[in-house]
Each structure stands twice: as structure tokens, then as C-alpha cells.
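**Sequence, C-alpha cells**
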Amino acid sequence: MTDTQPATGMARTAQILGFLLKYRHAGVFAGLDADEAALSAEVPSSEAGPEQFVRDLEALGPAFVKIGQSLSTRPDMVPQAYIDALERMQDDVAALPAETVRGLVEEALGVRLSQAFEAFDDEPLGAASLAQVHRARLRDGRAVAVKVQRPDILAGIVADLDALAAIADKADRWTDAGRRVGFAGWVQELRKSLLSELDYEVEADNLVRFGRHMAAHPEIVVPQPVWDYTRPRVLTMALVDGIKVTAVGGLRRTEQDMGALASAVMRAYLDQVFVHGDVHADPHPGNLLVTPDGRIALLDLGMVAHIPPRRREQLLKLLFAAVDGRGEDVAVEAMAMGTRLEDFDGERYRREVGQLVARYAALTGGRAQSEGRLVLDLVLLGSTCGLRTPPELTLLGKTLLNLEAVCRALDPSMDVKRVVEDHLEAVMRQRLKKSFSPASLASEAMEVQALVRGAPRKLADILALLAENRVQVRLAGLEDSRLLENLQKIANRISTGIIVAALIMASALLMRLEGGPRLLGYPAIALLLFLAAAVLGFGIVISALLRDRHAKAKGTPGGG
């Protein structure tokens, strides 16, 4: 390690922190203002708008281009104007020289380029911040696309992610936005996603798996990898020709039923979310091509999100309740998935979710609200009310929103809401049918068998405890609540009240004494006991009034 490396790292961290601080007053990362004493840097006042924000992100390098794409899915972190600008972010960069690309491919494959390929086009099909793609032909005549990762990109991204992780950890501890959103968790998820995207053998696995999943949808084609010429930094796959869905003209629509194709795309992605649990996380129009034979090709499967079965079930219930107009059920499912923060306002959240879903259900036809927009609004509403929603909910919203743009490009008259509702019903029927399959019934029978076999022993244990008077009831989480503290305060008040009562009774009895010292004409001991009782009683009254008033003010909505 050289002496300049730490300085370089510190300079990069300062550059990133400067970017974050530049835009904190522009409405980005609302609430990111930390304690001024903790920030020594001078914060420039910025009037830069969303477009400048995007340009500054792009200038920070490839990692931040991907961060910008991820931020476009977080309405709870970034205002809508900035999200719109981020969605227009360009990932096109200058292409690498041909000799550099050839050297990278030969180094990765361990053979000369001419041994692997009969032809290799030096002109790239596309060049992005992480990689570029070239057309080639294998020696057996197959046309392929070769994706080549840019040199040294991995080390730079890892360094940037390390710097971001350190900043995010401090933001979570020092800022309200950090405690509400959880920046550290978001950066960790981003790290996993980016590092997975930079391993092209993982992407090749994704291609194979998605090809298998999409077999039920003949309208969808997924290019398959050529494993002999695939490495962590080079991916060779079947070449798919076609045009972007946004470039489909009116003439093509008259020649082919684009409505059926758009419906097939929507159903295929709904199956990804709710059936298979593997989701193409970047379904923007540039990654979907209309092939000459009238199918849709899915490209760029480096960004794939996995949704576990339990979460799939929750998302299905939520979206089904939404399309059915059941706002209360939507709120219940969202709260079950999310994390309730200290300031979570459950009553407000239920009320506003109900209003949101009611507006969505009331609009139909051309005025219908996007399902993706509805889900993203739920995420934003959760952040406002103190509910941290899971990343899978944001993923669902963004996927549906991008899909709507794809479907509108193919068929502007498509009733997206109807297609979603019909397919969700089909998915629900499929799940119910699967639950009664021989395998599911056998699994349930084994669980019942285990319960029956273990029941006598557990019942005997319970009866033995009861007979020996050793049954204990433990309330989980009691120690972490304020209940014990409040019970102790109540007990102290009662004990003090009993003491006051005893002092007053003793004073009254001693008042009848004839002898002994006297004070103000009364027996001194009796008078002192009475004064002590008066002081203690007055203290109880004052304490009760002050604490009860404070509790009432704290529990009153809108009380300050």
C-alpha cells in the first residue's frame, strides 16, 4: 500500500460527501441535515435542479450511475421531480478501443480471439458504464453477442460502496431521514445487487433460469448463454435481433396483434413476481426488443431480485386487495411486511391508505391509475407515517410502472388494470390448486402426524408442571416496554399513600395524649407525624397532576 492511497480514499469520500451535502437543501434526501457541529465542511447553497443532479451523479462514475437507477425506485428518499430526471439518465459512454476489448476477451477466455470466434465486430452494439456488447460469430456459425466488462471497474465500485457505507452508517445514527429510511441497509442491498451484476457467470445462470421460467410464455424469448465462452468478466450469449418496443410504428401494429403481445409481457412479469420469485429488476423499454418473428426478447438480466415465498404471498394479497378496492386489507398487509418506527401513526396510515386505494379503485379506462404508481405511493405514505416498507414492495411498484410504459408503447389502448386483475385471479387459483396437490397434502399430513405423535408427551409435561405448581407465564417483550416501569410507579404511589394514611391515624391517636412536650398547644409527636403526612400527601398529589398531564399531552393527536 502506497502513501497516496489513503489520501485518495479520503478525497473520494470527501467528494461523495460534498455531493450529498450539496443537494440536501434542494429537497433531495430530505432530512439528511446532520448536527452542524458534526460537519466541519462548508455547505454550499445549491439551486441546482434535477437535471444538474443527474449530471453530477454521472460525473461521479459508474457506481453512481447505478445508484441513480436505484434511487429512481425510491420515492420515500427522492422527490418526484428528481425521480423523473433519474429515469432519463443516460448510461451511454465512450466505447473502449477495439484492441483493448480484444485483449480483455483473450485474457478472460485464455485463448486467441480467432480460436474462439470466426468473426468479431470491433464496432460495439452498445457501450455502457459497466460494459459494452459486440456482435460476433462462433466457429460453428452461430451469431452471438459478447458482453465485455470494462477494466478495473470492480475495484472502483467496491471503493465507492465502502465510502457510501461509512456515510450511510453515520446518517442512520445522526439524521431523522436515516432513522426513517435506513440508508445502511439500502447501501448493503445495492452492494449485493451491483457485485452480482458484475459477475457474468451469475448473469448466465439468470438467463438459463429465466429461459426455463418463460417457457410457459411462448411470446417471450430469453437469449441463452454459450458456457464455453463465458467467464466472470465476459458473457457470450445468443444474438437476438429486434427493435425497441418504443420504436414500434403504427404500420407494425396493424400487421401484428400488439395487444396480445403487451398482455403476454404483463402476465410474464407478474409470474416472475408471484410464481417464480425471480424478477427482472430493470424492465425498461431499452431492455425489451420486438423480434422479427413477433416475440419479445428480454435482455440484460444482470439485475435480478429474488423474492422469498412468504413475501410473494404477502405481495399477492396486497396487490389483489388493491385491485379489489379493499384499502383496510392493503394497509394490514403493508404493516405486516414493514417495520414500524417509534413515531409510526397507525391510525393515520390506515386512513390515508384507504383513501388512496379508494381513488385508485374509482378510476377506470383511460383515467385509471397505474398499479405501479399506487404501490410506490404506498411506499411514500409509509415513510411519511413512520413505516419502513420492505425493498420488495418498491421493486414491485417500479416493475409495474416500467411495464406499463412498455405495454402502452406496444398497445396504447390496453386496459392494464384489467389484465393485472385477471392474471392475479389466475395466479390465486393456481396457488389454491397447488395447495391441494398430492405433494402439498402429503406435507400437511406429515405435519399433522408429527403433531399427533408429540401431543401426548407435551400434554403430560403440562399436567406435571400444573401438579407441581411450576407453571410460569412470561410475556414476551415485557422487559423492553415501559409497562414494568409504570407498574412500579403505581406501586410506589400506593405504598406512599398507605404510609400517609398510617401517619394520619397515628397522629390522631397521639393527639389524645395528656403528657409530654407540646407544640402550638398540641402533642409535639402527633403534630410532627401530621406534618410529615401532609408533606407526603401533597407530594403525591403534585406528582400525579404533573405526570398525568404530561401523559395526556403526549397521547393527544397533534398535541405538542
